[in-house]
Structure of Zinc protease:
Amino acid sequence: MKRLFAALAFVTAPLAATAEEVTTFTLDNGMDVVVIEDHRAPVVVHMVWYKIGSADEPVGASGVAHFLEHLLFKATDVLESGEFSATVAANGGSDNAFTSYDYTAYFQRIAADRLELMMQMESNRMNNLAITADDIETERNVVLEERNQRTENNPNALAREQFRAALYQNHRYGVPIIGWKHEMEQLELQDALDFYDLYYSPNNAILIVAGDVEPDDVKALAETYYGVIPAEDALPERIRPEEPPQRAERRITFEDPRVSQPYVTRSYLAPERDSGAQKEAAALVYLAELLGGSSFTSDLGRALQFESQTAIYTNAGYSGSSLDDTSFSVTVVPAQGVSLSEAEAAMDAVIADFMEAPIDPERMDSIRMQLRASEVYALDNVNGLARRYGAALTQGLTIEDVQEWPDILQSVTEADIKAVAAKVFNRDQSVTGWVVSNEKEAM
């Protein structure tokens, strides 16, 4: 187990005030701190984000990042198992945690005058977790049951796992966040401790404090509770396997008798938001909305659900929030009597038509207005702002990137969308999936 050392100094680098009143500084041990001021209510959101997720796990130990997230609610050197959450609740707050491919985060939402208590407890479990073999046995059963409920008992979730594993031929994004079941069953105490000791360190973490706080007060508390924790000198550089050039389309038919409605879906590799280069990702946001954002206004919805009545549901989806290459997806659920072959052909026809026809300027203006409103409304949600900054900073973006994103979205042109669409709609870097309940539906 790691030990606490003497307090370390810190270096501050405040940013100019924005609509979110954001201030940043860095402790001398390498821990970054972001303070987002919002004084409308005496409430604070306290979050610690670790720059480690399931895509950073050792080969053969899939699920250990999420497993460790569960284990952090067990005992430490000063807290009993479950005492952390019980203390938060007793003080009128709420807490939880979540794991993604790129990060693991822990948060509490509580009265502003309880911030010091949250820092005291969260900093304690960064270094002083006291898990036992019994904890491993109990919590391993919990995460296995979670997989049963969310994945094994859900044919659509099982299908998505297969499609994602085929889309990423080399990158760890092809491994489910919760882990492959056969590897989850083998996770042991040492797996969790090795992961914890190496990656749960201040120089691999970002503290986000949002709400009714003053930056100087947060700085003093951060120095007191997090600044005393030593940096991890052996922290490795964050290098992941890259995707090789993909030269052939992959097709999968997933059959499960529990499937209630057959459908066709296709995922393409797509660029993520990169620091200083977010324009392609912004254009993909528009592309998803134009193709499949609304059944009433999108190209897929109007053509397949209303004009031809080929489908009962259509969708296009994209999320640029990713450290490495992400995906762009399109889905069509055919209407009664329409085969999957016919549905896929109709889907491809809509995509082809989109690439040939000009984009309606009125639709562009409408989407710009929707995105502008969404960005304005986001400023009203302190928890959402904290998550926005935490996710971005753990996925290679900067404070400036987050703050420039709304303007980049507004600057997207029709030419930007057509250019990125031509780049993404490459069948050689795609997986097409048919999800059916029986062999007959795949004919």
Q: What stands out?
A: The radius of gyration is 23 Å. The chain has 15 helices and twelve strands. Confidence is low (pLDDT under 50) at residues 1-18.
